[in-house]
């Protein structure tokens, strides 16, 4: 029992925004450095490997496309976890995490779509095909945009976080259904003539840069996410200070209890 | 619960209610299609089921944003939240009332529009059947969107944006079931059963999510 | 039955509206919440009604009959700023709906629709659509809603804001009758309710440290 409660205490320590800011300030430069290193190695490998005899140089698009597609899904999973954190544990940082992950996820999804399209032009002779994968990713992109729109439409961040979290989870439950139905639809309408890149026959020659790039992209995501979370915390802190200033102006000098550090960061209040 | 169902049905047919608007929108959308694609009867017969389904999907979303917003604006939502009745059940009943008022008329109007689309009897029957089974799913998942956007002044558009991607599976299985019924080799039952399953799954997810969102958005 | 609130605090958005509010109301008693605009009267009532999550503290029902209620909210009627009536439906349909949907609590029973309309001084117009009524009449009919389904606790947020003196007297009579049946009431108001000597809770707003001032 005591072990568990200790673990929980450690967990909630991390949830304290001030601690998070301090910790992330120490961590992010290192993460950025490691990310840059992986990107350097990954990009070098990308361009040092030989092109595919069938696909030629365009195969290198895959080194961007596949990691971006992978991240588009991982980011949604991170958001779903954060949504659980918001709804179940009322974790103050979970709100921040879910909200800031959405634009990053949308960007990676967009990159996946663009690179997929660029790769499709020489491969399929057209910019866009209603391939099951591309279509699913496109629907995912629409869902990201919807979530961002919702976040922007609700002015109270706590409420935005809660309803956003519910929507994220509904979407998360739906993603497998959508994926399945899109594949069903695809086999119905289109003969399976699409060249599939992945599969068991991928050459280790291509696999190595792909793995390095996937790691680099994942690290990039976490670095960006931490930085975005820092921004969001600071933004909320500024908003709180402004509101307090407005309040104390209405009440003359303002109450003595207002200036305390405990209230300057609303996320610190016990929940 | 019957009281709520009856009240919502009454409200939908009284002045300002949205029952007939949905059907009108449905008919207008379907009537506009031939002007876009041309009056080729063969082509219309071929794309007819899809057009009817898309029209019904859009018409079902119409007015969905008012499902909880109207209750919130006049304070009824507060009282509904305070009752002993589980909120999930209340939401489910409201969804049913909304579907009877807006979804069922679409189903009933679909054979008429199918005639305009030059669809033959089997396609007409299949479209009607799939709409009957499939449109509740749109209402259920739409209720979640409506509840999420309940406090927003311009929630209507947002509800459609949020709900449409989630409703894609319903459209896919609905339309494929119709085509399966018409075109010989494909069996009708698998997509139809998937559609039924979707409706049942959404009947759980939708009200649960909507109830949670309504609780979260009181202020 | 007693309604006991201990050290409540609540926030709206990110702002702490009040903190450490405690009170206790017994059967047949009314608590009047007073204070300037923005001091958190409405927020307090919504917290008691379970419509807003409380930050800290407890609200509970104790004493005889309290076990019948799963939550405090189910024992309460809430009369907020809005009337919670549909303009398109007739008054009778509105009241009938709330009577059926809310249902009676175990400890009492509501009166009929016509009797309720009579009690608020508007008998004979229940067949009219609610939207046809004047603002004052609408408010009175919203009060009739409190009568058709029995709830031991009445939560009243500015109940007489749009009403004339006669209606205020009428409403004071309703509240007295409710208290006489063993009910409880908590009301936020600027105007005196005409209930005679009652317990008052003064909310000073958060900026004045002195939040918990009892009369």
From TrEMBL, chain A:
Composition bias, Gly residues: 251-260
Subcellular location: Cell inner membrane; Membrane
GO molecular function: heme binding; heme transmembrane transporter activity
Top-level taxon: Bacteria
Protein name, UniProt field: Heme exporter protein C
Sequence segments annotated as region (Disordered): 248-271
NCBIfam families, alphabetized: ccmC (TIGR01191)
Gene of this entry: ccmC
GO cellular component: plasma membrane
An annotated GO BP: cytochrome complex assembly
Keywords: Cell inner membrane, Cell membrane, Cytochrome c-type biogenesis, Membrane, Transmembrane, Transmembrane helix, Transport
Keyword Cell membrane: yes
Function: Required for the export of heme to the periplasm for the biogenesis of c-type cytochromes.
Family: Belongs to the CcmC/CycZ/HelC family.
Transmembrane segment boundaries: 20-44, 64-89, 101-120, 132-151, 163-186, 206-227
Domain Cytochrome c assembly protein per the UniProt entry, residue ranges: 12-189
Alphabetized InterPro entries for the sequence: Cyt_c_assembly, Cyt_c_biogenesis_CcmC, Cyt_c_biogenesis_CcsA/CcmC
Lipid biosynthesis keyword on record: no
Pfam family, any one: Cytochrom_C_asm
TrEMBL record, chain B:
Cellular compartments annotated: Cell inner membrane
Gene Ontology terms: cellular component: plasma membrane
GO MF annotations in UniProt: heme transmembrane transporter activity
Topological type in the membrane: Multi-pass membrane protein
Domain of life the protein comes from: Bacteria
Residue ranges of the TM segments: 12-37, 43-64, 85-108, 128-150, 157-180, 192-214
Coiled coil: none
Keyword Cell inner membrane: yes
InterPro entries: Cyt_c_biogenesis_CcmB, Cyt_c_CcmB_bac
Pfam families (alphabetical): CcmB (PF03379)
GO biological process: one example: cytochrome complex assembly
Keywords: Cell inner membrane, Cell membrane, Cytochrome c-type biogenesis, Membrane, Transmembrane, Transmembrane helix, Transport
Record carries keyword Transport: yes
Record's function text: Required for the export of heme to the periplasm for the biogenesis of c-type cytochromes.
UniProt similarity note: Belongs to the CcmB/CycW/HelB family.
Protein name per its UniProtKB record: Heme exporter protein B
Organism of origin: Mycoplana azooxidifex
